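One-letter codes give the sequence; the fold follows as tokens. An example follows:
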Amino acid sequence: MLAYEELKGSSGRQIRFRPPRYDARKLFPSLAPRVRVRSSAYRLHDIALGGISVLSKQNSDDLPEIGETVPLSIQQSGLPIFESSARVCRAENTVFGSKIAFNFVDRFIEFDKLLTRNTQAQIAARSPAFVAESSQLVPTEYRAFCSDVLKLLRSYRLLLESNTTIAQGFHHGLDQVEAFETCEPRLIQQWRSLWRLGNELTNGMDKERDVKEATKEYTELVLTPELRKGAIWDRSYAKPLGYPGDFEIMNQVYDWERIGKDAYEMLMHRVGLEVAECIRTRMEVVRAHIADVVRERGHDRPARITSLGSGPAREVEGYLTSHTAGGHRAEFSLIDQEEVALHYAHEKTYPYVLNSDGRIKVQGFNLSFTDILRG
């Protein structure tokens, strides 16, 4: 316990107090509100007492200008839960699109009221009239498709759960790995057909914003809870590092491991891997290209290779695993916004660097795409 005179405040820039900013994904984990400015809708990024920031993929020419005051509305399921005039105070380009910050002019956020209205809007959106109107935007063929997917997945789930219950009733256990191995080839064959059909049904849907948003919401209500029983789906949806496709998800695809506490969870993870197999293919192509570039350089000059958004850099690790004895020289610069990803890559490549007699160098740079664009 500290005495009063031992208590310390902040230092440096932290001395100037700023109200906390809350990540929209954490404040609204189920369904984040949208932000509407004039006729344009934006994705809410974070929110504070006196302002918000949003993300937009629109052309910069269509965005409000810095210093401009505009009418702003935060909406949940199409219903307003907060409205104010707002001044554009900052704008920047990020890897996720344009990021725009607004300061409220004549109102401020009362978080208890905002969260209450957010809940009320979601309840109102479940009313028969509202649901009927929203459902009409979702193509009939797509709703039938979701039903077919759910029927397929739950047929496997019911089969596995019922047989597990029977085995437990006789004080025995069902071998979950063997059950998974029996189901896997059959489910994957059926899944591939449905996956291709889903791609066909959603192709071009992004051109109609209302249809796309209604279809997305429908999918998240009907299919997403079932798919999230698989580790790769759950992490991709939850985005614990703030974005999909983080280095842990990449590693799940590269390692192609069975993840899950029972056969059904392993199956859900497996169908997710099937969708993401192109990630592993890309890594193998890049690894082969690295080998070609280094070989063409010969032994006299080092090949200098930069990986932007390197993640776990498994292609570099893979190259070093099979080519360190070749006598060639190479210098790798790994650039990523996630320090944990660079730490992982450093741990995996360092043994090869250490045993290369100085021929191999690997450097990590903790930079974002925005930092690079700014120079």
Q: What stands out?
A: The longest strand covers residues 79-94. Residues 140-169 form the longest helix (30 residues). The chain has a mean pLDDT of 89.
